[in-house]
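Milestone M4 deliverable, item 7.
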Amino acid sequence: MQRPSGQPGHGAHLHREPPALLGTRLAMPAQPLWDVCCAPAPAALPAPPPARRARLADLDANVHCSIIGTCLPTAELRRLVPRYAPQLDRKHARDLQIHHTAVELSTAGGPLAKELNKALDTRHAGAIKQFRAADDAHALTQLWQQALAQGDVPSAYWALMTHPAGTPDVRALAFGDVHMLSHLVGAANRADLRRLGDLEEQCARLKEQNLQQQARLHELGAHHAATVDDLRQQLLALKAQRDSLPADAADLQAEVQQLRAALADRDQKLALHTARRHEAEQRLQADQEMLAAARAASDQAIAEAAVAQHELGALEQALLAVAGADNTGASMLPRLDGITIGYVGGRPGTATVLGNMVAAAGGELLLHDGGIEDRRGLLAAMLPRAHLAVFPVDAISHNAMHVTRQTCARHGIACHPLRSASVASFIALLQRLYPATAASS
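Output delivered:
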């Protein structure tokens, strides 16, 4: 629908005829045809004579507003209306004043109505010719729906409203469609105005950014020009340096060969030194690993020597005690009154001596060789009878040691490993476990 910016919709100011003029129109229809939000129930549209198209003056006054506002641009109205309304200033009158005066003068008939009718026929001649093919209201409605879908509302609206086959219902249908379109256009205009404001703000920001970018580009261009000048000066200097070189190509070639030979010799020496350095690093790493292993072995030997020294000291004290006591060997051990010791593994000769010594000290030694001759099933039955269990780590099978640890943990029995199956290790352990009784004995 064609409407210049600033022209209000027809529904906002439909012209209302004076009561005297309304009385001269046709009688009211059984049901109102027009939207009650635009005007009170108007008189029924008079059916035009079948032999000709209706003129603007023949139509109901309530549709003049929609026809003039929809089918004629404000520029055309501003050219025609002031001729018949001298009170209007062609340049300074508002669009609403022009529109309102045009509606009033057209409903009153007269010269302006004829001028407006002529302008409408001239502007929409193509649609009038197209609508001539409709010979009844149904065909006319179909043409109107097609034009409405295509957006050609102004021309189709004038052609339909003045068509000989137009009925009050068809005209009412077109009037309602145009009325609702005016609301949609108003809402769209408001949205467009908001978008226009946003676009103007965005345009201002873009202009500012453009100015900044132009300044930046100008600065970069100046920097680029300065760089080009510097490079040009360097190029000239290099050309001058090239011109100052010896002209004898043979001398230059010989110098290049010498430099290449010196470079090859340097590369060869560098590769040799690199290989030697790599070899030295490998030897150093091997020496460091050997040194670490030697230190670990030394630390282990020192620890074993300390343990052995402690055991020898204990054995020496026991032997000194034996020298002043009887030959039973009981004084080598602390008093073991009623203590039962489970001894797993070891050597047969040593186990017999240990058994005699424990018995002389008042205790009992339960022996199990770890499964060599004794059955392994007896080990789990023997250990619960002992107060503590010992086993030499150098004379016991892995399975017997595992069973001993599990059984002692299950029955809450103290379990102590011995460094070796020697008598000295056994005596040192008992003296460490029972120092009070050892001192008193």
